[in-house]
Amino acid sequence: MRLFKSGATRSSNEGKIEYFGFRHPLTELSFGKYMLKHQKQEDGNMRSSSNWWNGWDESISIQSLVRHVEDLQAIESNFFVYKIKTPQGEKTVYLIKPNKIFDRLKYRVSKEEAYNAARFNITAGLLEHLKNKQNEK
Fold it and tell me: Residue ranges per domain, the chain?
């Protein structure tokens, strides 16, 4: 039991999840900006911020996560990573030197973007896993 100067009492914090300490304002801001950027769909419409809660197969998140981890590894290995959309789909290019044309078109993937993309896929995959686990009960 905790007793405050005001005379108020509260139960102890023991065993309670301390969400505040598990998150950091800089990472939350970075992730929020990443998510806002990706709310815009290819057709120009904005999807709901919680749209991803509707889910998809867990394997989709795992496949995407692995691609983003590969991007992180390439960036860490001093490659410049670019994502280019083609009529056949998205293409990833790893270059030893930066490409001015790709940079002007904003195709370069930053380390921050890759971390946030990985975080998103981990969160989405975990959500599907937890929902599936609950449905098994």
Answer: 2-39+62-136
Residue 47: closest CA among 55, 37, 39: 39
- pLDDT, one tens digit per residue, over 76-113 is 999 999 999 888 989 999 999 999 999 998 899 999 99
- The token duo for 58 is 């867990």
**What's the CA dihedral at 94, 95, 99, 105 to 10 degrees?**
0
Distances (CA, A) of 42 to 25, 37, 47, 109, 115: 29, 12, 10, 18, 22
What are the contacts of 73-78 at 24+ separation with CB within 8 A? Answer: 75/109, 75/110, 75/111, 75/114, 76/111
User: d(Cα 93, Cα 78) in Å, to the nearest integer?
Assistant: 13
Kindly report the three-state secondary structure assignment for every residue of the chain.
Answer: CEECCCCCEECCCCCCCCHHHHCCHHHHHHHHHHHHHCCECCCCCECCCCHHHHCCCHHHHHHHHHHHHHHHHHHHCCCEEEEEEECCEEEEEEECCCCHHHHHCCCEECHHHHHHHHHHHHHHHHHHHHHHHHHHC
